[in-house]
Design goal:
By secondary structure, this protein is mainly alpha-helical. It has a two-stranded antiparallel ribbon. It starts with a helix and ends with a helix.
């Protein structure tokens, strides 16, 4: 298997779909569609939609069938980045190698474009060609993962972490919500849509989500803004607890390798999982 070729094909498929998802031509409110597209089409690795596509592929579903759900996950992720960058949150001015949404369009439009992407995500997901029971269950998983028990809940704990040092347990739980929940949802939703138990790949995706955050903390310490396409050191600036501040870089690197290995081992009982295994290794070695 040529992993990078397959990854590129999946990324292109989701990018092509996203490019057609928002059309502001002839609308009075055209500026918001420009702001939505500005962030949605700014690039990125498309981790969550690719993971969902690979999950469904391993379980016998066509990638094309689940594109609306895969696109919905990327819309939610993008909205979270727009809001995360706001002055009232992390106050960042660089994302994916260019000025953040609020720098270009102003805070009000950035908030509205994030809100609009969140709403469009659910509208897009529900258009997928599956029976009502599967769609409702998958949509419910997406809502939970992105809500106060998932991504938003993690962001709340992250903000509170600017005022006090988090324990190791609190930090791990925070990232399981803020970063991990939507990554885990990608496999859970894929399993549901394929007619399998939602927890079939949970061990894999839970470890993958933790590994992703461990790598992010390492890159924030060792990389550059040019390489990452975003500001580095913002967690240090905001006095937030990270895996690096708790464990140091060498131990965090060891934890990353161990967590990645656990993710790969969790796939032993899954046939046709070669891409998912390679995907875990790809995230381990990524430079941005």
């Amino acid at each position: 298997m040529d992993f990078l070729k397959e990854l590129s094909a999946k990324q292109k498929k989701i990018n092509d779909y996203l490019e057609k998802a928002i059309n502001g031509e002839g609308l009075l409110q055209k500026e918001i569609t420009e702001a939505m597209n500005y962030s949605l089409l700014a690039g990125g690795k498309r981790i969550r939609p690719v993971l969902m596509m690979a999950t469904c592929e391993a379980l016998g579903l066509s990638e094309d069938e689940i594109l609306p759900f895969a696109a919905a996950l990327e819309m939610i992720h993008t909205y979270s980045l727009i809001h995360d960058d706001l002055p009232s949150m992390d106050n960042d001015d660089l994302r994916r190698g260019r000025p953040t949404n609020h720098v270009v369009y102003g805070e009000a439009m950035a908030i509205l474009s994030g809100d609009a992407l969140l709403n469009l995500a659910f509208e897009t997901a529900i258009s997928a060609p599956f029976d009502a029971e599967k769609k409702l269950k998958a949509v419910a998983l997406m809502g939970r993962a992105s809500g106060y028990l998932g991504m938003i809940g993690g962001q709340v704990v992250d903000l509170e972490g600017e005022e006090r040092k988090l324990s190791a347990d609190e930090l791990t739980k925070m990232h399981a919500m803020k970063t991990g929940a939507l990554i885990k949802a990608a496999t859970e939703m894929g399993c549901v849509l394929a007619g399998e138990d939602e927890g079939l790949l949970s061990d894999y995706s839970s470890n993958l989500g933790l590994a992703f955050q461990l790598k992010d903390d390492i890159l924030d310490e060792t990389s550059t803004a040019e390489e990452l396409g975003k500001n580095i050191g913002s967690d240090v600036k905001n006095e937030k607890t990270t895996f690096i501040t708790l464990y140091g870089i060498k131990e965090t690197e060891r934890m990353l390798e161990d967590t990645t290995e656990k993710a790969v081992l969790a796939l032993q009982r899954i046939e046709n999982s070669e891409f998912l295994k390679e995907f875990a290794m790809y995230l381990l070695k990524r430079r941005n």
